[in-house]
Write a structure and sequence with these properties.
The protein has 14 helices and 17 strands. It is of the alpha/beta class. The protein has a domain at 118-311 and 360-366: Dihydrodipicolinate Reductase, domain 2, CATH 3.30.360. A seven-stranded mixed beta sheet has the order 9-10-11-6-14-15-17. Strand 7 and strand 8 (176-180) form a beta hairpin. The mean pLDDT is 94.
Length: 367
């Protein structure tokens, strides 16, 4: 995702772009595509802090397990920080660093991709447009329109998908955080075409880590992931028969973890060639009251492949963090650690994303 962010930041000639990666060759390849400087660094040392001292803001597009370490490096360097999400538990730990960042005059924005990120901002917009809020429901769905796109496949990182089907999810219901089984809460969700109806399920995500404390009065906050039915049913079956387990099993050649074998097989699956033809939607519904009557504000965001050749999924995930770091470098986010719904004015961020290619629509529905 870092390479997608670099491509999108290269749209702006006023941005002096540096690509940092523990793999120097990869950093240089991405930099060559975007007219940036590519620099490798030793991830086992304090070198990242030194590299960030000359940077105004960093878009950390790394696995969430590295978020806290990169945050510490950014804080020590006096560099503003943004990431793509902490899968709930890491996000809550990061939010605890607010006072340290505020005291240092450094800002941080947690989880500013499409989901989490734009989902939070659309929830904030909906809350601002009605009088009181009782519930927030957020769902992400996508479809691949290329040949074979309707069959079983791996939509993104194998490890991420397997985590989503195996790690217990968190929901906020009746004013309390609750842990629920991974893949539970399945309902069919109707998106606009061409995505259509898809099964959606609870997964561990960062929106319920912050929205219950930033949207006054809300009693329910629920996040669901929707996948094409063939993908959803396929991964659900693999998990059900134990192939996503980390527990070692004995086979004639020795002891192996089923998940390692499954990951290797899935990563070796062929991918569709040619130009990307996927479409992705975010659907965010904020329920409450307006002028004394029940009401639901529904906001939709649509992502299509970008002119640069990025898939809809990559474009939608990377674009918000590129806006975030540009605005942070300009001093538009106050010091401290912020979730997306408090870091930015919702209407301003939505307008900027619209100018850069995201499609938005919204409506006020009767409850």
């Amino acid at each position: 995702m870092g390479s997608a962010a670099a491509v999108l930041l290269a749209r702006h000639p006023d941005v002096e772009l540096v690509v940092l990666d523990a793999d120097a060759d990869r950093a240089e390849r991405v930099a060559a595509q975007t007219g940036a400087d590519g620099i490798g660094f030793d991830a086992t040392s304090g070198e990242l802090t030194w590299q960030l001292r000359s940077v105004r803001a960093v878009a950390s597009c790394l696995p969430y397990r590295l978020n806290l370490a990169v945050m510490d490096a950014a804080l020590a360097a006096g560099c503003h920080y943004a990431d793509l999400g902490g899968l709930f538990h890491t996000t809550r730990k990061q939010w605890e660093l607010h006072e340290r960042f505020a005291s240092a005059g450094v800002s941080a924005v947690l989880g500013i991709g499409s989901a989490p990120g734009l989902t939070n901002v659309l929830a904030r917009q909906g809350a601002d447009l009605i009088d009181s809020v009782t519930s927030i429901d957020m769902v992400d769905g996508a479809v691949d329109l290329s040949a074979g796109g309707g069959t079983f496949g791996v939509p993104y990182s194998v490890d991420t998908v397997l985590d989503e089907f195996t790690m217990p999810a968190m929901v906020f219901e009746d004013g309390e955080l609750k842990q629920v089984p991974a893949g539970s809460g399945v309902i069919d969700w109707e998106f606009p075409e061409p995505v259509g109806v898809q099964p959606s399920m609870y997964t561990l995500h960062s929106e319920p880590a912050t929205l219950p404390w930033t949207i006054p009065g809300v009693r329910d906050v629920r996040w669901r992931l929707a996948l094409p039915r063939a993908v959803h049913d396929g991964f659900a079956f693999l998990v059900k028969i134990g192939l996503a387990s980390d527990e070692l099993v004995q086979i004639p050649s020795g002891r192996v973890a089923p998940r390692e074998v499954l990951s290797a097989v899935l990563n070796a699956m062929p991918t569709a060639g040619g130009e990307p033809r996927d479409v992705e939607f975010l659907d965010v519904r904020v329920a409450g009251t307006k002028e004394g009557s029940p009401a639901v504000h529904r906001a939709l965001a649509r992502f299509d492949p970008s002119p640069e050749g990025l898939s809809a999924g990559a474009f939608g995930t990377a674009l918000p963090i590129t806006v975030a770091v540009r605005w942070m470098a300009e001093g538009r986010v106050p010091p401290g650690v912020h979730p997306p719904e408090t870091a930015f004015d919702a209407a301003e961020l939505i307008a900027e994303l619209g100018r850069q290619g995201v499609g938005f629509s919204s409506e006020l529905l009767p409850s």
